[in-house]
Amino acid sequence: MDLKLKDKVVLVTGGYRGLGKSICHLLAEDGAKVAVNYRRGPVEAKALVDELQAKFGAKAIAISGDVSKEDDVVAMFDEAERELGPVDSLVNNAAFCPVGATADLSVEDFSYTLQVNMTGTFICAREMVRRLLAAERHGKIVNISSQAAFRGSESGKTPYDASKMGIIGFTISLAREMAKHGINVNCVAPGLMYTEMLAEAIDANPEYYNKRVPLGRIGRTEEIAGFVVFLCSDRASYMTGATVDVSGGLAMH
Predict the structure, then answer these.
(1) Element spanning 189, H or E
(2) Is 35 a member of any domain?
(3) Which of 37, 61, 43, 64 is nearest to 144 (CA)?
(4) Does residue 4 sit within a domain?
(5) Residue 124's domain spans which residues?
(6) What are the pLDDT digits (tens) for 39-89?
(7) 214-249, pLDDT tens digit by residue?
(8) Which long-range CB contacts under 8 A does 126-135 form with residues at least 24 apart?
(9) Has residue 252 been placed in a domain?
(10) Residue 232 to residue 217: CA distance in whole angstroms
(11) How many CB atoms lie within 10 A of CB 244?
């Protein structure tokens, strides 16, 4: 299916590794211009940009910025627009996850997680909306949540899980507000997938994690990325306010 993403400009926060990296790969493969945001990992981000350019002939840039800081986010959008053109789609993928029993977590752990995951999503989405409205343009916003929002975590990730549920509520509210302006806002809630965030735990006990998934295996990041890229495209023009479960059967409706 042609997603009609050729020359569309897409900004992916936290795009230099894990799910974000797979999203950038598929966007570039479909002809999009890709802005890869990173806060840490400048070497990895630059290497990814080089790979996208060499493999797909894509126009791609790496942009440093902390999604939880307003000035950084404005600068990110300015640079993307200057180098690639006005942003057509935003993927709010950047995230932080503290690991530890709730009794051992600090207020700072909780606050920082919400600052990155929820406040960062808000600031980036707000900047996207401001620019689209000012230019009277349509656009797409895709927020990344998690099945942990619905199921919780036995391993003690309460700040992360709470933030991911908050992202779903934010998605619904922003989608209702922006529908009349032709701005689609959707959410993807992945299940277990093999990323840097979970690699150590999965490698230590793969059988345990595989058994938790009805399909019998951990998801690959590219399997989730395909749905994100679809929601960035005009093929998803009649979807807004939706949360798409891509979970290997962890969520069934």
Answers:
(1) strand 183-190
(2) yes
(3) 37
(4) no
(5) 9-246
(6) 999 999 999 999 999 999 999 999 999 999 999 999 999 999 999 999 999
(7) 999 999 999 999 999 999 999 999 999 999 999 999
(8) 127/73, 127/74, 127/77, 128/11, 128/77, 128/87, 128/90, 129/174, 129/178, 129/183, 131/77, 131/81, 131/86, 131/87, 132/181, 132/183, 133/181, 135/86
(9) no
(10) 27
(11) 20
Q: Which H or E run includes 35? A: strand 33-38
In this structure, what token pair is assigned to residue 37?
Answer: 């945001």
d(C-alpha 42, C-alpha 34), whole Å = 16
Q: How far apart are CA 223 and CA 237, in angstroms?
A: 21
Torsion of CA 146, 141, 169, 109, to 10 degrees: 60
Burial of 181 (C-beta count, 10 Å sphere; 0-12/13-18/19+): middle
Distance of CA 26 to the CA centre of its chain: 13
Instruction: Supply the residues annotated as catalytic.
Output: 160
Instruction: Give the tokens for residue 130.
Output: 């401001």
Residue 120, domain member (yes or no): yes
**Which CATH number goes with the domain that contains 89?**
3.40.50.720
Tens-digit pLDDT profile for residues 99-144: 889 999 999 999 999 999 999 999 999 999 999 999 999 999 999 9
Into how many domains does the chain fold?
1
